[in-house]
Specification:
heterodimer, A: two-stranded antiparallel ribbon, B: MetI-like fold, 2 domains, flat
Chain lengths: 312, 283
């Protein structure tokens, strides 16, 4: 900070009888303000990341002695079919979840009008995001039920035998992702609605004078101005896709036969549930997931850093 | 404004737009309407196959009452409040202090520290799971409300700090500088000058964190096991096992779990959206 000259210039005459803190307060104060948050964050977030990586080199049941394995857990991972299924499903999540972005933009464009009662409509459209994923998962489990659900009803209406979406190895992941898209689209929609609010009317007007309308207006005038909203939508969608856990735990618990597993759920299953307390192996899976996410996080941070330098 | 305001279209287009809006909303919220209808229908309807039709009777009070009577939903809801409210208070307070430090002081570590908070907020929960659970077991906080509160507060501090730092940074710096020249102490500047100015941000953040923590399921599963500390999200899953094929009760319990964040959102809508889109609006 370019100081005001208040703190660092020595007082010219006589001795400086201010306390050490008073003399250095601009250097010390930020650390005092930071200390509580940093302490919490180190204990519960930063340190556990390194501990997990460390644990991934051991065999450990969570209670007894840890047995050093070196890279053994990772070698096992390379030959683990369930790991590859999870990885494949994670990719599927990541790719299909991205549909939330155009879908959200589409709904936002549809709702970006000033008809009476529009505010209420917008907030009702946002509803699915506020609801717990556990509830969303339960609703869709019930919808997909071939004998009680909507799916059953629709198929029977056409005289067909309803598929058991959550019981079919080839359909199950799509079924869960579809359910997950519902709240995610709502999230992207709200980001775009705000983005559209901030689009400069002058530029739209200028575009109109240049003969842009409809698609060309969207593509060349509006879309570039939505860049911050799009960036945020991509960030939350990528993170959301890779974090998917609740829906899978509620709807299928990774089944049938592990076919709807993703890394986050497989890790949980390995470390804490029926497959026994294999904390070391679980941590190895978590480390892989972390590495994948770190790629995205680094990219996001890099983009933010560019912005930061461009700003202030 | 884009797209073209509908008022400027033909009357036919205007009418069809206004007609289509409620239809679109109806389809969009169909899942919710369906479970609401189910939550008020008698069990007999479900057994006789009337799952999506008009209920033969409206048992709003009876069904919701039955959920509380036949399950621990009351305890679970109360646990959720005991977990969520302290978390909001702790994480928002910590983040005010930290956000202030990162926004106002220019020191070398400011940017790296800021990015660590942001990055920590994005990590997968699973990389924290084993050590955090172990720490909770070691300190006797496993399966307690306090254990969950401490973890959530720490984790949410990352997001809150990002948020507060950006907000405080947008305040006019001259205010703080002139207070310093007047010789006002650093903490007094924070307390009397900055804190009143960030009130809208505090509200936005509080609503958001409330929703995030209320809806948490993963940590509830990892850090608790008994009814005494189980929040409603994990509770609903337990109820789902208990009320097998009693869809009316499962639906009622689900809606109870969804209600507090929904109410929060409706009451504080402006703040909520301001919170979610802070990054997007500031460009």
């Amino acid at each position: 900070m370019s100081t005001t000259g208040f703190d660092h210039t020595p007082i010219p005459s006589g001795e400086d009888n201010r306390s050490w803190y008073q003399k250095n307060r601009l250097k010390v104060a930020p650390w005092l303000f930071l200390a509580p948050a940093a302490l919490f964050f180190i204990v519960y977030v930063i340190a556990p990341i390194f501990q997990s990586i460390w644990i991934s080199f051991f065999q450990w049941d969570g209670l007894g002695e840890k047995v050093w394995l070196g890279l053994e857990n990772y070698y096992e991972l390379v030959d683990d079919d369930r790991f590859y299924t999870s990885l494949k499903n994670n990719t599927l999540w990541l790719v299909l979840y991205m549909l939330a972005i155009p879908a959200g933009l589409f709904i936002a464009l549809f709702l970006n009008q000033t008809v009476m009662g529009m505010r209420i409509y917008k907030s009702l459209f946002f509803f699915p995001f506020v609801i717990s994923q556990v509830v969303v998962g339960l609703i869709f489990t019930w919808f997909y039920n071939p004998s009680f659900g909507i799916v059953g009803l629709v198929w029977e209406f056409f005289g067909a035998t309803p598929p058991s979406i959550l019981g079919d190895e080839n359909l199950v992941t799509y079924g869960i992702i579809f359910a997950g898209l519902w709240p995610q689209i709502a999230y992207c929609m709200i980001l775009y609605l705000t983005g559209l609010n901030n689009v400069s009317p002058d530029q739209i007007e200028a575009g109109r004078l240049d003969g842009a309308k409809g698609w060309s207006m969207l593509r060349y005038v509006v879309w570039p101005q939505l860049a911050p909203a799009t960036f945020l939508a991509v960030v939350v969608t990528v993170i959301g896709a890779l974090r998917s856990f609740d829906m899978i735990a509620i709807m299928t618990q990774g089944g049938p036969y592990g076919s709807s597993n993703v890394l986050s759920y497989y890790m949980f299953e390995t470390a804490l549930s029926e497959y026994g307390f294999r904390m070391g192996y679980g941590s190895a899976i978590a480390t892989v997931l972390f590495a994948i996410m770190l790629l995205f996080i680094s990219y996001f941070l890099w983009k933010m850093y560019q912005e930061e330098r461009g700003g202030h | 404004m884009f797209p073209k305001p509908i008022e400027k279209s033909s009357p036919l287009a205007q009418t069809s737009y206004k007609m289509f809006l409620p239809v679109a909303l109806f389809i969009w919220l169909l899942p919710l309407l369906a479970i609401f209808l189910t939550s008020i229908r008698p069990a007999a309807d479900i057994n006789s196959g009337n799952v999506f039709g008009w209920p033969s009777d409206f048992l709003l009070i009876e069904n919701y009452f039955a959920v509380f009577e036949q399950s621990k939903a009351g305890t679970f809801l109360w646990n959720s409040f005991r977990i969520t409210v302290p978390t909001v208070i702790i994480s928002v307070s910590l983040a005010c202090l930290a956000g202030y430090a990162l926004a106002i002081y220019r020191f070398k570590a400011a940017i790296p520290l800021f990015f660590i908070f942001v990055a920590g907020n994005f990590v997968p929960f699973q990389i924290l799971m084993v050590p955090v659970r172990d720490l909770s077991v070691q300190t006797g906080l496993y399966d307690t409300v306090t254990g969950l509160v401490l973890f959530h507060a720490a984790f949410q501090t990352g997001f809150c700090t990002l948020f507060m730092r950006n907000f405080i940074r947008a305040l006019p710096f001259e205010l703080i500088e002139s207070a310093r020249i007047e010789g006002v102490g650093e903490f007094k500047i924070f307390w009397h000058l900055v804190l009143p100015l960030v009130r809208p941000a505090l509200a936005a953040l509080a609503v958001l964190i409330f929703t995030f923590v209320w809806n948490d399921f993963f940590w509830a599963t990892v850090l608790t096991k008994t009814d005494a500390s189980l929040p409603i999200t994990a509770g609903v899953r337990a109820l789902n096992g208990q009320f097998v094929s009693q869809w009316h009760l499962v639906s009622a319990a689900s809606l109870l779990a969804a209600l507090p964040p929904v109410l929060m959102f409706f009451l504080m809508q402006k703040h909520f959206i301001a919170g979610l889109t802070l990054g997007a609006t500031k460009g």
